[in-house]
Membrane protein
Amino acid sequence: MNWLNSEAFTLFGQHIIWSDMTGNILGLITLALGWRRSLWTWPVQFLSGLVLFAAFYGHLTGSAGKQVVVMAVALYGWWQWRRTRNRSGDGQITPRFASWRERAAMIAAAGAGTVAVALLFQAYPSLSWDPWPDAYIFVGTIVAMYAQAKGMVEFWIAWLLVDLVGVPLNFANGYAFSGFVYVIYGALVLWGMRDWWLRSRKAARPTLEGAPA
């Protein structure tokens, strides 16, 4: 798998490696499929994690380990969507807003998780190149994927919060391709959030007996 860490092309003076390009492109496809509420969201997400795991394994054990967690959550998401997709009229999952209790739980988990992971990264410097931002992005990604698996509209907001740190951080560290991809992520997130929000309102609207569907 050494080819994954070889240079694909140069963009604005930045050397783009195959793993960075492939993983980010698969990430974009995952987000677009999530917007469409397609079950294929999760296999593509799993494949993205697998590509990055193969690229990192052997020399960046911390990054490889994080991809294992991402792949595990992708499997959970696939199971969850497959189990609930037939509850809507179009054969896909029905988006909904999280309850206040669910929101509080996710915020608490994100906060506590970020602190715990950052401290772990600080204790073992080989696991991360920048402990606190890296922990924030990693934990935020897991929370977003969990909310997506549950069909919560808030998962788009979680992705936006990850992007707010991910975009400047990638540019600052010389990962121009990843930075541009995160900008596209932001646009997809806004469109996807609008679509899920409208669908959640439609799903929540009561249908009067005898009224046309």
Notes: The chain has a mean pLDDT of 81. The longest helix spans residues 176-204.
